[in-house]
Automatic annotation (TrEMBL):
Sorted UniProt keywords: Amino-acid biosynthesis, Aminotransferase, Branched-chain amino acid biosynthesis, Pyridoxal phosphate, Transferase
InterPro entries to which the protein is assigned, alphabetical: Aminotrans_IV, Aminotrans_IV_CS, Aminotransferase-like, B_amino_transII, BCAT-like_C, BCAT-like_N, BCAT_family
Catalysed conversion reaction: L-isoleucine + 2-oxoglutarate = (S)-3-methyl-2-oxopentanoate + L-glutamate; L-leucine + 2-oxoglutarate = 4-methyl-2-oxopentanoate + L-glutamate; L-valine + 2-oxoglutarate = 3-methyl-2-oxobutanoate + L-glutamate
Enzyme class: transferase
EC number(s) on file: 2.6.1.42
GO molecular function ontology, one term from the record: branched-chain-amino-acid transaminase activity
Cofactor(s) required for function per UniProt: pyridoxal 5'-phosphate
Protein name per UniProt: Branched-chain-amino-acid aminotransferase
Family per similarity comment: Belongs to the class-IV pyridoxal-phosphate-dependent aminotransferase family.
Species whose genome carries this gene: Nonomuraea salmonea
């Protein structure tokens, strides 16, 4: 249900914002997703009334009744995007309307209210503008933005979804998601666990998908790998995606990515790379890719590179693959030339070193 109404944000600046020196200390070594800026945005929703009480206020804890629906039934969803400080000093976001659209697709699946796309983007603009000193200047760093929505009705019944919700945005200065530079990651093929099945929530960015993934990610680490790769639920044969990233394969010089079957998250980075490939003169294909094709292609030399992509991960090469009964290396295990070219182009647009010919960059300040 989209409720077309123009909201105005009440702005109450923090009376305990960090000093410039405190902020600089954080920005010198921000890590990933551990430190948050001085403010946050909230908007409440009540069935019959729509969205109301839009506000920007000091970042701080929430007080919620223990019976609040989100704690029990995980009626929750989120988004992830970044604000970048460009070479010329501008602060921009990358394709925020694409996140707004996906947010509302997730909302439909989770029986939650949709937020007007303009309000979604406006809430991000407001938070980033208020906390713009928190947008890092260091190369490859950014301000990670986390819009999310929770069901807030204190009631345990499951006959009807919550009648009240809260949308919020928080922001966190971020270094690279993977430490150690552009180092190829090792991946674990999960055959014991499944991320998503047809008719489920795989295409939605809801917290439950991630809660159910931790056990497999832990298994990947126990097997000496960095990340879990999800396979289809039915046969555990077709490659779907990684922990928080989509996958691309370079097969016979073509960029091949698993088709969006409904069980994968439709990544905005994935979509952008499919478009950029045309600019780079690369052919693309969206189709099923099986584990056998992956392994045989590496053995024959037809499949030369694999990379993961996402907002957090940007473009990260995959070096080695391991499963319960097999393991192999992709190419010579080092980042491939097409991976690095795609990465350079994407990052170039985000940080302003390349022209934004697709109109993806949304200027904030
Ligand atoms: N797949 C999953 C499961 C994710 O969590 C993400 C991260 O958002 C992605 C793929 C990549 O999506 P995007 O490129 O929109 O960040
Ligand atoms: C992102 O790339 O924005 C993600 O959401 C990945 C993540 C869950 C860390």
């Amino acid at each position: 249900m989209t409720i077309a109404q123009k909201l105005s944000f009440d702005v109450q600046l923090s009376d305990h914002a960090r000093t410039a020196a405190e902020r600089e200390q954080v920005l010198a070594n921000p890590g990933w997703g551990q430190v948050f800026t001085d403010h946050m945005v909230s908007i409440d929703f009540t069935e019959g009334k729509g969205w109301h009480d839009a506000r920007l206020e000091a970042y701080g804890p929430l007080v919620l009744d223990p019976a609040t629906a989100v704690f029990h039934y995980a009626q929750e969803l989120f988004e992830g995007l970044k604000a970048y400080r460009q070479a010329n000093g501008s602060i921009v976001m990358f394709r925020p309307y694409a996140n707004a659209t996906r947010f509302n697709r997730s909302a439909q699946r989770m029986a939650m209210p949709e937020l007007p796309e303009e309000t979604f983007v406006e809430s991000l603009d407001l938070l980033v503008n208020t906390d713009k000193e928190w947008v890092p200047t260091a190369e490859g760093h950014s301000l990670y933005l986390r819009p999310f929505m929770i069901a807030t009705q204190p009631a345990l019944g499951v006959n009807y979804p919550s009648k009240t919700y809260r949308y919020m945005v928080i922001a966190s200065p971020a270094a690279s998601y993977f430490t150690g530079g552009i180092k190829p990651v090792s991946v674990w093929l999960s055959t014991e666990y499944t991320r998503a099945a047809p008719g489920g929530t795989g295409f939605a960015k809801c917290g439950g998908n991630y809660a159910a993934a931790f056990v497999a990610q832990r298994q990947a680490v126990e097997n000496g790998c960095d990340q879990v790769v999800w396979l289809d639920a039915h046969e555990h044969r077709y490659v779907e995606e990684m922990g928080g990233m989509n996958l691309f394969f370079v097969i016979g010089g073509k960029l091949v990515t698993p088709a969006l079957t409904g069980t994968l998250l439709p990544g905005i980075t994935r979509d952008s790379i499919l478009e950029l490939a045309g600019d780079l003169g690369l052919e693309t294909e969206e189709r099923l890719v099986s584990v056998e094709e992956w392994q045989a292609g590496c053995e024959s030399g037809e499949l030369t590179e694999v990379f993961a992509c996402g907002t957090a991960a940007v473009v990260t090469p995959v070096g080695t693959v391991k499963g319960a009964d097999r393991s192999w290396t992709i190419g010579d295990g080092t980042p491939g030339p097409i991976t690095m070219r795609v990465r350079e182009e994407l990052v170039g647009i985000q940080y302003g070193a390349r022209p934004d010919t697709h109109n993806w960059v949304h200027k904030i300040a």
